[in-house]
Amino acid sequence: MLRADDIELQLAEPRQQAFTQDGWIFELKLDGxxxxxxxxxxxxxxxxxxxxxxxxxxxxxxxAARAVxxxxxxxxGELCIQDAQGxxxxxxxxxxxxxxxxxxxxxxxxxxxxxxxxxxxxMLDGKDLRGLPLAQRKVLLEGLVxxxxxxHRLDHLEREGxxxxxxxxxxGLEGVMCKxxxxxxxxxRGPSWLKVALTQVGDFAVVxxxxxxxxxxxxxxxxSQLVYAGKVGAGFNPKVAAPVxxxxxxxxxEKPPFIGTPPADPEAxxxxxxxxxxxxxxxxxxxxxxxxPVFLRFRDDKTIEECPPPPWAVAAPPATNPESSSSxxxxxxxxKTKPLSNPDKxxxxxxxxxxxxxxxxYEAVSPWLLPYLVDRPLMMTRFPxxxxxxxxxQKAKPPKAPAFLRTVRVHNEDEAKEIDQLVGGDLETLRxxxxxxxxPLHIPAGRVESxxxxxxxxxxxxxxxxxxxxxxxxxxxxxxxxxxxxxxxFVKTSxxxxxxxLVPLGGQLDHTGARQLAxxxxxxLVQRCSSLATLERVVNKRQGKVYVxxxxxxxxxxxxxxxxxxxxxxxxxxxxxxxxxxxxxxxPRQWTIRNALARLEAQGDPLAPVLSVVPDLGGALAALGG
Length: 626
What we know:
Layout: E1 10-14, E2 20-29, E3 33-40, E4 43-48, H1 59-66, E5 73-80, H2 90-96, H3 102-111, E6 115-124, E7 127-128, H4 134-144, E8 151-153, E9 157-160, H5 161-171, E10 175-180, E11 188-197, E12 200-210, E13 216-221, E14 226-232, H6 238-241, H7 245-249, E15 252-253, E16 268-271, E17 276-281, E18 294-298, E19 346-348, E20 353-354, H8 355-373, E21 379-382, E22 392-394, E23 407-412, E24 417-422, H9 427-435, E25 438-443, E26 453-462, H10 468-484, E27 490-493, E28 499-510, H11 511-528, E29 533-534, E30 546-549, E31 559-560, E32 576-577, H12 596-603, H13 617-625
Helix pairs in contact: 8-9, 10-11
């Protein structure tokens, strides 16, 4: 019987342009790992291009392949991890391929799952299919592999290669594969498979250079300031730098002239941004720097204000609130969704923020927000007439809601009945929620497949009449307590009055255990900081102290989702923070829908590890008990 180890992969010859021709099919060129999936006798193996086995790295794909109905098979295809728009993000896939700890692998399989796109079947029910024409193999593949799921077949387009390439360019994807329908599967490169790989070209402001001129540091202009965009070394060297070296040296700065986290490169030298360069790159993944950049030339005809932001960034119109110097996100096309009704309705009348701008914000922030919503039941807080109108909570799917909404059957204690609760995780559902007047979104610590297990324990610092400076002090004291126990913890603003500190659990505890851990931490913290903190829930009994609240832990308990908008003036959002940002002067409302995106594009999400870290809870509890 044919085995994956016996197969030499068929490879494609490069070609500059796609074409329109009968007898050919055209597929998306995906940015992932080429992978054979073998299932023989119920045993699944994932085999990479050079023979390395990847089964233990991507258990969710192996499990999905095991569940495909039918006989034994060997599939050829591409393994990817996608962003909220469905674009493959190679860096995330590469990161997962280096994780070996079984707990970490399991956590990543849940929080950042991979998808396998099968484009060929090479063995079926013990028969070697490589000698069959591709057209016949595609028919067999269609009968075997579903169109959707963790393992699904890759769609193709017959004849119209140029049309597909035009669409791929518009979407900023990798390229197009061209395959002859009458050709058998032959290992190595040959003319029956062709690849058209696209590259992008962009203009960037020069904000620094490496010592000895081995690289340039780049930024883009977001309409009001420069945002760090990585560096380029390929194509740039001291000889290329010679004509402008005096300009770079003569404009030296002590601090970076951009927003975003500067790289920790000891050879980095910052400079006044005046030069513009043209750079070719493979693609520009959401939230990251351009991939595989190559320096092309200096652009004397361009200014730094003509260096556009990345394709996934949202352009922002001028702010309508005269008190703000930032701007609001503008609405983007909603894809398959129907046109937005009443887009100009004011949701935040004091700030001039409309329904369309709230929906646009949620679309734009989705790459960071959706990982927290995946497979979690949602609680919508709806404000159909804006924040000054009536509001109500909604868990259940409305009777006339669109069919694409996913639900899970749960018991609603408030109504004492079973309901179909909405489940988050995809962009269309998020758009629909926002279009229905949802302003904040609340989420539980459990996911649909393990509702009884908690992904985090949370402590909410509620100041009420206490100064927010006391919240900062207490949050840092809790961080020190967790550090002593070697217990990781992460922090975000509530978007209203307080801070939330989240301790990752990796699903190791049920909700009762999560509440008990939070109670232990809160009790120890109050003992250490009794002059500032209290466990008293009744406001008039707190004596001006900060309430250390653990009540958001437990079955059915919720927290406001990271990046969710709060229904108060200025439209603040719940923003994840680095611990070095928890300092005097911090405000829980300083990030709003007007400035949150620029921060995220520059700095990313420091809370993201809460979804994947699996701490040593036994050791931590022993340390806390001691």
